[in-house]
Design brief:
A 7-stranded mixed beta sheet has the order 2-10-9-8-7-3-4, with helices on both faces. A 3-stranded antiparallel beta sheet has the order 11-14-13. A two-stranded parallel sheet has the order 1-12. It folds into 2 domains: 144 residues, Alpha-Beta Complex (Aspartate Aminotransferase, domain 1); 239 residues, Aspartate Aminotransferase, domain 2 (3-Layer(aba) Sandwich). It has 14 helices and 14 strands. 40% of the residues lie in helices and 13% in strands. The chain is globular, with a radius of gyration of 21 Å. With 408 residues, the protein is α/β, with parallel strands linked by helices. The longest helix has 22 residues. The model has no long low-confidence stretch (mean pLDDT 95). α4 packs across α10.
């Protein structure tokens, strides 16, 4: 058995299940979950119909294997979307690839990039290659790094600056061993968007030390400001890097189009890295189903449903955020569909008592971070995913207000 598996920590939702063991929630209240970031808005009918039509009209049906690169029409759809969204000009055949959701691609790219033997024995934390991660973070970053034989390094974040990462605190000795750096903008769980000046810092560090930047942008189309979030490739062009050197961006239809069950997204960026990533994926067996490709082409080609989806979130957050702000330290994020709130006392106690008394599930912030540099930046925080319909989210907020008031 792969010994690196023993280094993996339980996923946050498994820890949450364990936290609620032997608890019977208030039976007089219907259960409401704000725990998992799974979109609940209806899937647009035209995307479903595109998949149905593809099954019926494709000459070979499902009788042939799809190619790992995806059909040219799909990759052309990626390129058109990048042009419309970020004003980027990319070669769809050398600078884009379809992926089965951003999660599997984040993991797979890490296996492609990391050379576990380049800095000595990977089992030695002092000599292993490094994958730099934000903190708090999406746990796949850590798991992908560990299973690639690398050592995750969690960058401190500043709560006073919306949990911006303190890149300047990373020692040169760590940068020298860094092979891959994960960013998440808009961030999970904070909703923060990285500004151009921060991208410049990361590109300068990448040029100096040679590491690859993996930019996780799956929340890019749900935002609350007038201006859409800056993307990594967009920042690269603005900073005079049109070849996207050492940069790969990840985007997905799951949140944008409410199709998490389709497992569809794409990666784009540095053509040299993309060539090696394609080689890895050819062996990994990551080809996208033809019917999913057809539905994806339809989804990437339409913005009206995205605008309508964004409007639903804006309305929902406008109603829920002021309610919770009466009793919690919480504010409207830049983007995403999470509220990242500070609570009094222990975050796991808060989540457990809220579940028991009011049948509302939230995720303890400490489950989304690691103890590093003497602190866990998720401690005394909770993440609330406002993915359900507005009425349900408002009811959950009202229960949380009653709960917090009852504790004071």
């Amino acid at each position: 058995m792969n010994p690196l598996l023993s280094h993996l920590q339980p996923y946050p939702f498994e820890r949450l299940r364990q936290l609620f063991t032997n608890i019977t929630p208030n039976p007089s209240l219907r259960p409401i979950s704000l725990g998992m970031g799974e979109p609940k808005h209806p899937t647009p009918a035209f995307i479903q119909q595109a998949m149905i039509d593809a099954i019926v009209s494709t000459p070979s049906g499902l009788a042939s294997y799809p190619v790992t690169t995806g059909e040219p029409k799909l990759r052309e759809a990626f390129a058109r979307w990048l042009k419309k969204r970020y004003d980027l000009n990319v070669n769809p055949l050398t600078q884009t690839l379809p992926v089965n959701g951003s999660r599997e691609a984040l993991f797979a790219l890490t296996q492609t990039i990391v050379n576990p033997c380049s800095h000595g024995r990977s089992s030695d934390p002092e000599s292993a290659p490094v994958v730099v991660c934000p903190n708090p973070f999406y746990q796949i970053y850590e798991g992908a790094a560990l299973l690639a034989g690398a050592q995750p390094y969690f960058v401190p974040s500043d709560p006073a600056r919306n949990f911006a990462q303190d890149w300047d605190s990373v020692p040169n000795s760590v940068w020298a061993r860094t092979q891959l750096l994960f960013t998440c903008s808009p961030g999970n769980p904070t909703g923060a968007v990285m500004p151009l000046i921060e991208w410049k810092k990361l590109f300068d560090l990448s040029d100096r030390y040679g590491f690859v930047i993996a930019s996780d942008e799956c929340y890019s189309e749900i935002y609350f400001r007038d201006e859409p979030p800056l993307g990594g490739m967009q920042a690269s062009v603005l900073l005079g890097r049109p070849d996207f050197k050492n940069l790969i961006s990840f985007t997905s239809l799951s949140k944008r189009s409410n199709v998490p069950g389709m497992r569809s997204g794409f990666v784009a960026g540095d053509a040299a890295i993309m060539k090696q990533f394609l080689l890895y994926r050819t062996y990994h067996g990551s080809a996208m189903s033809p019917v999913v490709q057809a539905a994806s082409i339809a989804a990437w080609g339409d913005e009206l449903h995205v605008m309508e989806n964004r409007a639903l979130y804006r309305s929902k957050f406008a109603q829920v955020t002021p309610l919770l702000a009466e009793v919690l330290d919480v504010a409207l994020p830049d983007a995403g569909f999470y509220l990242w709130a500070k609570v009094k006392g222990n975050d796991t106690d808060f989540a457990r008592e809220l579940f028991a008394l009011y049948n509302v599930t939230v995720l303890p912030g400490s489950y989304l971070a690691r103890d590093a540099q003497g602190a866990n930046p998720g401690a005394q925080r909770i993440r609330m995913a406002l993915v359900a319909e507005t009425e349900e989210c408002v009811e959950a907020a009202q229960r949380i207000v009653q709960f917090v008031k009852s504790r004071t």
